[in-house]
Amino acid sequence: MHRLLLGVSSAALALAAALPAAAQSIPDTEATTVQDVVVTAQRREQASQDVGIALNVLGGEELKEKGVSVVNEIENIVPNVEVDSQFGGGQPQFRIRGIGATQYSANNTSSAGIYVDEVAHPYTVTTQGAMFDIARMEILRGPQGTLYGSNSTAGAVNIITNAPTVDFRAGMTAEIGNYDRYMVEGYVSGQIAPGLLGRLAAVTEQGGAWQFNRDTGEVLGDRDKSAIRGRLTWDLGPQATANLTATYMVDKSDGLGLRLRGPYAPGNAALGPVIPTDTAWRITGWQLSPAMAAVSGRSVGDKPGRDNAGFDINLRVKADLGWAALTSLTAYQTFDRSEYNDWDGTRYQESDVYFYNQLDVLSQEVRLASTGEGRWNWLVGVHATDEHIDGGFYTQFRNLAGLINTPYGQDVQAAGIFTHNSFAFTDRFRLIAGLRYESEERSLRTSGTTVAPALPRATLAYSNEMSEVSGRVGLEYDLTDSALLYASVARGVKSGGFTTYNATSATPFRPEIVLAYEVGVKSDWFHNRLRANGALFFYDYTDQQIQGIEYDRLSGRLGKITNVPKSEIYGGEIELAWTPFEGLTITQAYGYKEGEYSEFFAINDAATAAANPANGPWDVIISTDRSGEPLQFPKFTYSGSVAYDWTMAGWNLRAETNYYQRDEIYNASSASVLAGYMLWNGSVTVGPQTADWRVSLWGKNLFSEHYDETRNGFNGSARPTMSPNPGRTWGVRLSYSY
Prior knowledge:
This protein is mainly beta and 738 residues long. It has a single domain, classed as Maltoporin, Chain A (Beta Barrel). It has 4 helices and 43 strands.
């Protein structure tokens, strides 16, 4: 498949190069005004208010102002979106409108499609270095798959980086903050030669350790991340351009330390005393064993953290063929994951884990889209991907003397063909119709889980094939020139996969399917001073993928990703943006959702364990009807901001505050409620009217709200651990552009 993908790219490049030569470029879309943001969410330029999709657009400067330095932090801005870091690890998990996986191994795809400059990142562990030199971010809620990339059931996050410019430009942003944190980001852009434009951007972020070890006082939480991106744009003819982008990133940041919700006693009293419940918010603990240090390439005294590196390169060719616009996108990604986490939060080796992975993804996409202004706008495309993942992870538990190793290798070959169409019956009434067919083959090789000094067993092979149709049908009606009413029905599909942790059997889980019904309205009032958008949705969820358990007759209890036959989710969002007078902007966003299992007989862990001999075989399986049980996500999210711009004595000034509230979550694994919380952030910016620099004083979590992102039962205490977040942080930002 590698040769096929590269061959398609070469053919597209040759076709574009064959067009007549002239000096003309096709610039990337940029935001115009707050009232009329131009987006490419449907792979053509449209005002965001003209797109019948629940959509949020965040500009690069807005992301900086709101303190979004990693993609995880978009949850503080966008309604009904949550992003969890999986117990402090480097792999985020996205949940949009309640749909999202809980997965800390690297081999399964996300429920939400993540794209950087149109390139799909199927494995979210690769997304932690993408947030620099950003033009804008587009977040689409609801199933996607008829416009680009691969299938997704939750939605899509599109990150668009800044394009090269014709004029010479340069800029720098530097920040310093508490806990000895600093960040420096810069770029240079302009014409390299006639018809050739270039841009080079880089960022480094260091420091910020806010936790400390209860035993040694050593600090934890330093960021150590750097990335560099180069972009080239050159003219291939009067109707064609080529864009080459390459990004390299390294992440050697500390992990997150977990806190004890109750006293912890080691399995053997000779190991040490009972550790009392953690009361100080910043306290944690860790310690590598010599055996774990040896396999991870670390020292016994090393902190939890990452040593990850990734490289992405892609070539995008665009050509106007007259009757249609051609886009070819060829991309290659490689990523090395080396990550040690201490999930028991103590110096005892209750639950230490080390992940090691090598990911390689080669993808090719070709799209043809209509260029006319007629009643019918169409797009057809094909997308193919060839993915390879090698690696696994080691774990260590107190009741086992040796390291537990679960190695695996996974291959994925997938291809999809899709079309998206818009037909205008009248100037105000349009039909939207899209369809996609996806074929996928996944294969896994693993010797299962072994405990040292036992030797690995024979390698077993598993396969999982998928042939699914997804699509969307909708209607759009312009109530007025500034009010759009839309309704749609969409079918989304997320790939199946394999459970690759702590298992002797990696039998696959099935794809999940969402049938989504949605109605919404987008409107601008009072000469575009007030924007009011809203949406209601209902999801009929089949084979939802969740963290669960299974029992193997010989091995006993296994943590597994399982499928829930039927679930449902319903809710809605309301978003307001108001400019009552010049300089003042107020935004509000509220998202609400509820969900439950409507058909689910799950294994009763305690009853099954009691019904079988302690050491097996486990022949008796007892299930419990969990239908009617609520799904594990917050019912509501609420966010907003107030910003005021004014001038005084030759200076531009801006004061801004933003806030975010999340409802509580019932946590089934720990049989407890994860409390809700509310965060307040703010900034003040000042700069001269006659110069191109400005300075900002910013603060995040201004009232030091203490809240947990997740809870887990990885240690043996009656009250498991929790993953905290930092209290108040603050800093100063200096920006200069030329």
